[in-house]
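haha ok so turns out i had the wrong file open the whole time. this is the CORRECT one, sorry everyone. sequence first:
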Amino acid sequence: MTPQPAYLLHKRPYRETSALVELLTLDHGRVRAVARGVQRPGSRSRAALQPFAPLHLTWSGQGELKRLSLMETRAPAAMLAGEGLLCGLYANELLTRLLPVELPVGDVFAFYAAALEALPRPEARAGALRSLERALLEALDAEPRFCTPDGQALDPQSRYVFVSEERAFVPGEPGIDGRTLKLLANGDWREPGLAGPAKAVARAALAPLLGSRPLRSREWMRQLAARRRRES
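then structure:
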């Protein structure tokens, strides 16, 4: 096969010298594979197969679990630390948890790559993550419908809460005002002042997909925020 652009989402040891890996690929979406010998000391593949590094990969196999046969880095890994690193881990965990195996998600791949470029910059993180979350929701046919359950337009002067079963909004408090929701419906998730509402809508839409098992990366983020409050 032609080498496929990819990113490593998750890796864990397998047998003595191999690893089981979860990958985000350009044309094949999430791919699960065995990377043989990658845990061996001195392995060139071990150095290449790192999170947040753009890769070129090939694999073989007909079942759900593939076998990697070529691993090359295309560029250095994104330099993430602190909150930026936790945001990257959140993106990886979210895609690993929610993407079906081998569902083509070219837009998700593009927004993930863009997020890795944005995460080193604190002012760009929120917008990049919201764009990635929205692309993921669209790929899963679970994006919010910015209307009432019966398809009526939202009143800019009213406040609404999201109902996950309907993927729509109903009047309620405290809620989000209809004007803000209309801006989000137009794709203005990066506009100043919309970070909080955009995060709330994305989290509400993702919640039924994630189920009751919490994301570890969110807990790490809460711990970091608590530590910063204690130190301030």
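The CA atoms of residues 6 and 18 lie 19 Å apart.
again sry for the mixup
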